[in-house]
Amino acid sequence: MIAYKHVRGDYTDFYSGKVNYGPPYPRVVEQDDCDPPTEKVCGRGLHANIRRLDGLYYLHSPLTECHLLEVEAADSDIICRDEDKLRCKRLTVLRELSDPLGPQTEQVKAFLAELPTWPWLKPQTQDAAELARLAFAAVDTANSYSPVVCKRVRFVTWNVA
Q1: Does 67 or 136 have the greater pLDDT score?
Q2: What is the DSSP-derived secondary structure letter of residue 13?
Q3: How many whole angstroms from its chain centre is CA 11?
Q4: 62 versus 36: which is more confidently predicted?
Q5: Per-residue b/e over 49-62, b at no fewer than 16 CB within 10 Å?
Q6: Residue of 111, 4, 116 whose CA lies nearest to 50
Q7: Lowest mean pLDDT, pick from 21-30, 41-50, 113-122, 137-146
Q8: Which of 18, 31, 36, 156 is buried most deeply by CB count within 10 Å?
């Protein structure tokens, strides 16, 4: 099965930063201490996404510093899967794709680079925990008045020099 894996700028996984998916390709990546299928897709193991850009949701590093890899998992190596992702004991990294943020990768990177220069987006604090608390409070407040429930999502912060 063909799937997709977003990795950090140094080609390590987002979660632990210890699994290396770097070149040369093709390359086999294995993990021995995987959880059983009862732990569903979020247990220990090698994770990949069925659709190209779904891995961006799990991103734990700057969007501009990620790579997108095309991987293959043999049916016998898939521990479990759902409609979005799969967890495996072995993945073969086939190649790096040139558009980790989608077909408009360069435009997205340029837009993200420009955001910190917008004065009205400059936060009063650089404390990431405080920013998260404020963002979640805003969502919770909106939910108390809205017939449509907003979900909490990841948000991007940046360091302003």
Answers
A1: 67
A2: -
A3: 13
A4: 36
A5: beebebbbeebeee
A6: 4
A7: 137-146
A8: 31
